[in-house]
Amino acid sequence: xxxxxxxxxxxxxxxxxxxxxxxxxxxxxxxxxxxxxxxxxxxxxxxxxxxxxxxxxxxxxxxxxxxxxxxxxxxxxxxxxxxxxxxxxxxxxxxxxxxxxxxxxxxxxxxxxxxxxxxxxxxxxxxxxxxxxxxxxxxxxxxxxxxxxxxxxxxxxxxxxxxxxxxxxxxxxxxxxxxxxxxxxxxxxxxxxxxxxxxxxxxxxxxxxxxxxxxxxxxxxxxxxxxxxxxxxxxxxxxxxxxxxxxxxxxxxxxxxxxxxxxxxxxxxxxxxxxxxxxxxxxxxxxxxxxxxxxxxxxxxxxxxxxxxxxxxxxxxxxxxxxxxxxxxxxxxxxxx
Length: 337
Description:
It contains 8 helices and 20 strands. By secondary structure, it is of the alpha/beta class. The protein has one domain (19-317): Ribonuclease Z/Hydroxyacylglutathione hydrolase-like (Metallo-beta-lactamase, Chain A), CATH 3.60.15.
């Protein structure tokens, strides 16, 4: 009986944390676009971006499926990081499936041309169905149960350090320089989400010149537990100074089969000090097995896939679990002592 009791105790310790008192984050596969659903312990929801339009409502359908799994019937806050098709294109199709209470963005698009005008008009029409919140660095998105602090928006970065930031960044290189980006990527709304000791960062498609502004010469963000790779894991973002300066325990790469996850950026992230694991939404075809994580930690292996997701569940003590919906493989990351 003692052996059986000990076995049962061990099994209980290995069970996932997914539940009503956890912070749950769903990294939804939108084929190289972006959609991340965040559900707080208070069961409020925040969706970051809506993926692509078209494809018979594929991306909106996948977001709605994740919301159903999470018990979410509406989106309390929809954060549009910036106005590119793979981030905002699915907003109209999403509204056919889920109502949105508040639309969060950086203000009007800075890009011109037919596609930019059409995307802007579509978003403006969608935003009229709810409230609208235009944010700047330093603002908070009032999501219950967690703190969401905007650190980048509309080309600006947070003017002063977060509570966890402010130290000199040893990874800033005097010789490192990056081209100025005048487009929407550099305008991305980026934020740090904190719940107790747990910290998660999402910077949209912020490009490297703005990344450097945020963390050099001092790192105004500080360390995080989980880093959603910026710009799908492209090497025009994910500069060494920011990735290594953030010192994530886990990185989640929101790449597609043929978009993002490029070997150079992949290696920069893998080499980050203190990184325990990287997980990927897709197997990156251009990288081969040498620059992809082990298959159990990849949500989708095939180019034409079912759109499986990764799910993260965190507790205020800083512990969290990541689970792959494709194969149910999961790994627990205990709180740091």
